[in-house]
Amino acid sequence: MPNMLDPNLPAFADIQTPALVLDASALQRNITAMAEFAKANGVALRPHAKTHKSTRIAQLQIEAGAVGISCATVAEIEAFAQAGITGLLLTTPVADRPKLARLAAVADQSDISIVVDHADQIHVLHELLDAGSRPLQVLIDIDVGQRRTGIVDTASTLALAQLIDATPGMTFGGIQGFAGHVQHMIDAQERRAGAARVRAMLDEHLHVLAEAGVKAEIVTGSGTGACAYDVTGTFTELQVGSYVFMDSDYGKLEHEGGALPYDPSLFILATVTSVNRAGEFTVDAGVKAMAFNGPVPSLMLGVPEGSTYRFGGDEHGMITMPDGAEAPKLGSRVLLLTTHCDPTVNLHAAYHVVGHNNGVETWPVLARYGA
Amino acid sequence: MPNMLDPNLPAFADIQTPALVLDASALQRNITAMAEFAKANGVALRPHAKTHKSTRIAQLQIEAGAVGISCATVAEIEAFAQAGITGLLLTTPVADRPKLARLAAVADQSDISIVVDHADQIHVLHELLDAGSRPLQVLIDIDVGQRRTGIVDTASTLALAQLIDATPGMTFGGIQGFAGHVQHMIDAQERRAGAARVRAMLDEHLHVLAEAGVKAEIVTGSGTGACAYDVTGTFTELQVGSYVFMDSDYGKLEHEGGALPYDPSLFILATVTSVNRAGEFTVDAGVKAMAFNGPVPSLMLGVPEGSTYRFGGDEHGMITMPDGAEAPKLGSRVLLLTTHCDPTVNLHAAYHVVGHNNGVETWPVLARYGA
């Protein structure tokens, strides 16, 4: 049950808009619900940090039972290792020496796992890893139809697994199949079928490995859209990300028996900055405040019921009201549900987290693209 | 004439990708060309900092003759005033007390100008401005058809100008008409006609002010798309922004007699991270590295001629090659012309600027949305 925040909360008065606002109660409900779902289905959780880029949220996920945290970039795995988060997995193959060197440096200090999709990555890592340190756990990324990264045939998977096992300083940990294209399918039956095809592809790779006597301990992947289907086999763990926030994009997804069982928790606090036109008004949240690759805010608080948002350039959005509705007061605040959560978070330096008694604290967003 | 950078320049080897790369020669050619164009037409330049968020680039624009710099946010005007840039104009009306207070604090220290579109802004500023300090120059923002901010009728413009003039601590400086919707029209004749309609609207407001004996010293607006037409009258100065970079979006614009006379200067340096699929490969630049609200990169260096880019989520892009072309080496670098420059710059913490002799230095991106 969403807890409807008040955009004109006194604690928001001094926040400079546009700003990320996170409802701590809804966040915790989502984390608990996913943890209970995974536990009930006997599958591990390694939630994805590319969604939140926050060690505070990662800690809540681990307290709820997650075995670790997935990261998309070397900068994320560095920041999370630095914060003492354990069970880190880099889900993106890295191919250049500068980044592999940073990764080897993290691996010398912390127990991390990574994925690869090419033998060259193994050769360079072998040169870079400190011979005396703990072995690095290496998984193989499988292309399950997204045509982005990953191995495309079972013979190459086996050859790469054998190369990893034969290389000093590393151990073969299993396989990854991430189906980003399936997570956002709106129709539940289509998504169910898409997820089944992905698992069938992974099963083929697992079969070839097993036939050769190579054990894949971990099978990692899935996401918020398909996790309800992916607990039926193949996967040992789920890399769910967006469930913590439930943005306007995931809010559109159908679920058998209703919407996905998570609450919207992440909003953009914006200020009403122009009220001169009949039937509409302008807020200070545009393309630099909210990711453009998602639907416009499907939930807005502090605006007349039935209003719609349109982007108005870098710094503005325009809100059209139903006939006869009155615009909010100039200078007042509104809350807009995030469009697409991962790239929206990346546009901000911090979350303003509304907790018990409507107190607000600030949590940093880590590992944005640096200098 | 574009200077074609080499994506595998030795000076790029240690840059962590994805990263902003700026060609200093092309940048300087663009700044000089626009300065000469404005000078030849007797119009002032107040280039827009929302494009570059860089005091280094602002200084180059001022050295070339700009009368000042336009800013879109209070954080930008604070950062640029701090750096000693003069002639700052805030082009976005601000409506809430926390931001108006920051603005009043800057105005107490520096000669800045702002725009307003509502009497309430004048009343609050009057309370906040230090009575003893220099007068704040206030312009009126006119809605010239973008339906975003601004005054919509001439009677309100006159009333607001008279209120500004009657309020201690401020002076009426003129009017602004920014037509963001006109700048991106691809067809040159359509853009010419759109720009003429905007100027005609501004002329009506100017006429009513003049009839009442109110002098509008500054008439500010226009942009890279329409500036060729806006030097024919009405405007005393141009708020051009994108000409410094010429992204994939502005590269599509037709110009009478050819393309716009500016060179592409801003690229994303990316690494080839997956090469397992026939006919295509993957780079580490996606939605978190390049703005999604523009065309995909229309110019790519280090890739086979005729290749095309598609977004592949937060951290990836996929590049499809023509039949028979060979993929670049895994781990090698490519350069992608920015999609839409302003929001792309905002995704990065710094520019890697390639200057004489291919030396690279780092310039910070300022005033991204903060905590």
From TrEMBL, chains A, B:
GO terms for biological process: D-serine catabolic process. Pfam families: Ala_racemase_N (PF01168), D-ser_dehydrat (PF14031). It comes from the Bacteria. The keyword Heme does not apply. One of its GO terms (molecular function) is D-serine ammonia-lyase activity. SMART domains: D-ser_dehydrat. Residues 265-355 form the D-serine dehydratase-like domain. Belongs to the DSD1 family. This is D-serine dehydratase-like domain-containing protein. It comes from Tardiphaga robiniae.
